[in-house]
Sequence to fold (271 residues):
Amino acid sequence: MAQRKVPKALLFDIGGVCVASPFQAIREYESAHNIPSGWVNFSIARSAPNGAWHRLERGEIKLDAHFFDSFNLELRSRELWREYCTSARGSGAGSSLPPLPDIDGEWLFWEMMRIARNPDPHMSVALKKLKASGQFLVAALSNTMIFPEDHAYSKGTDDIRSQFDVFVSSAHVGLRKPDPRIYLYALARMDECAREKARASGLSEGRDWGGGITAGDVVFLDDIGENLKAAKKIGMGTIKVQLGKAIDAVKELEKVTGLSLLEEEILRHKL
Fold:
């Protein structure tokens, strides 16, 4: 296998990578309510590209009662439920369907957001070490939503954004992963940032920031395969972050960057 070149830029998803995965809330909700595993994600995915969730993440609609009404309707779609049962359980189109799950989409949504406010301890340490090294441009590309101004979750976003040289939020740019255009937009922002870095301080740590950033200079971390495939298609390197296993992704980052990114306590346990 060919040696992967050392990247200039590291591009991070947020949910499920830098913070706890909202998918964990879905998994726990389905388990607690005896809902077939994967139904909620299936419903959201099959509602693309113009489902309530997707429109929210593109900033086309507000996070309000109208969104929750639409989201709940999609979670209770008999057509999608039949499709799910056909693919997941092998029920034929003429077979009787199990009862459609009664899901409280609003409660589930806020539980997902609550869980996703918890930083991943391993990735948090890695981000700090990467920034401190000065050797990499550290960026974020996340499917997001805009919280109401008076909601507590609209506060404190600067703490997250301050960890990155570039932060691309889907709801603010009107595009969401895996649309190829948002990767190209993020790439342009990283290229601009690198060239600005060169103008401000010249060469740093042997990196030619003046040469800008191309797709081949980037390694992208995400927890969704579809998002990684889109990044790979334009030439980025990728690292898959498995649910609850960010530490394994950090180990991959160590190989890619040549830096020690885990906490010393963890390293001692590895010996």
